[in-house]
């Protein structure tokens, strides 16, 4: 296999033949036009695109934001440990590749509960591990992370477009438990779908159904609250395409909005 290029193996024994398979990781990949997806995931992505015409563009912009956030974390802040919760399927460029291009000693712990075995192998590289877990199992995830990262050293907690697909009653409380385990000098990077992008309640319901009901979009204010009062670095919590600096014309209105920001712990 060509380095860095992920090819879906439909005969993966751990994943069956894909019939009726819809994973959040797969829908996100399909929205970005990735080929390594099941037909049902591509169909779900098509339904979402019909309900929100900017959905595909925003998925791509979110991924680009994650990569810029990693450059900021490692290159600007000198934080060389990343705990990537809800990391998603491997893509052409992954968090550890961006981090290690800046600092070859950078270490990454990837956590997801939906990445197929073929994808997991591609996320396991020198300086990285992949842990298959529910991020709501905080103690277990932190225990595994501590086998690979020195959690007494500054660490970036990366939550790229994941908290709106995690079914928890107290998302801020979940994040706080991770934050409390990290030392001063650490960072919290988070992006999240906002329900203030113009989609009507009916359109939002169509999108939620495409995610098999596992979607909890929030207001800008509620997303801001997920940072638990931590100080956000400039420019604060903004549309992902405009972070960290506004140089582009922006994303056309089309129903959805994805905002992101980085805070100091
Ligand atoms: C939209 S993708 C985001 C991928 C990546 N973080 C990014 O921003 O490019 C959301 C990911 O969160 C994962 N996820 C959802 N709920 C999760 C949970 N409870 N525990 C672990 N991973 C979860 C999904 O499997 C999916 O891969």
Write up what this structure looks like.
One of its GO terms (molecular function) is methyltransferase activity. This is S-adenosyl methyltransferase. Keywords: Methyltransferase, Transferase. InterPro entries: SAM-dependent_MTases_sf, SAM_dep_MeTrfase_SAV2177_type. The protein is an alpha/beta fold. The chain is built from nine helices and eight strands. It has helices at 24-31, 39-51, 55-76, 95-102, 117-123, 138-148, 171-180, 201-210, 220-225; strands at residues 81-85, 107-112, 128-132, 156-160, 187-197, 231-232, 238-239, 255-264. Strands 1, 2, 3, 4, 5, 6, 7 and 8 form an eight-stranded mixed β-sheet that branches. Helix 5 (117-123) links the parallel strand 2 (107-112) and strand 3 (128-132). Helix 1 packs across helix 2 (39-51) and helix 2 (39-51) runs antiparallel to helix 8. Residues 1-20 have low confidence and may be disordered. It binds S-adenosylmethionine. S-adenosylmethionine binds next to helix 1, helix 3 and strand 2.
């Amino acid at each position: 296999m060509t380095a860095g290029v992920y090819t879906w193996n439909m005969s993966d024994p751990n994943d069956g033949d894909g019939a009726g398979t819809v994973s959040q990781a797969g829908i996100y990949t399909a929205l970005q036009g990735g080929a390594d997806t099941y037909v049902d995931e591509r169909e779900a992505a098509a339904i979402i695109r019909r309900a929100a015409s900017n959905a595909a563009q925003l998925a791509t912009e979110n991924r680009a934001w994650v990569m810029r956030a990693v450059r900021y974390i490692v290159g600007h802040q000198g934080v060389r440990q990343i705990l990537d919760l809800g990391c998603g399927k491997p893509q052409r460029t992954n968090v550890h590749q961006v981090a290690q291009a800046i600092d070859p000693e950078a270490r990454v712990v990837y956590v997801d509960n939906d990445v197929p075995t073929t994808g997991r192998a591609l996320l396991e590289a020198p300086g990285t591990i992949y842990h298959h877990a529910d991020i709501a199992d905080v103690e277990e995830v932190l225990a595994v992370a501590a086998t690979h990262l020195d959690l007494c050293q500054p660490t970036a907690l990366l939550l790229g477009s994941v908290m709106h697909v995690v079914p928890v009653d107290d998302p801020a409380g979940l994040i706080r438990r991770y934050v409390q385990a990290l030392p001063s000098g650490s960072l919290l990077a988070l992006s999240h779908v906002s329900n203030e992008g113009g989609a009507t309640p009916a359109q939002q319901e169509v999108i939620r159904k495409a995610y098999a009901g596992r979607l909890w979009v929030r207001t800008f204010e509620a997303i801001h609250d997920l940072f638990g009062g931590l100080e956000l670095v400039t420019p604060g919590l903004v549309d992902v395409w405009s972070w960290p600096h506004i140089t582009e014309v922006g994303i056309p209105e089309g129903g959805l909005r994805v905002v992101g920001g980085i805070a100091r712990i």
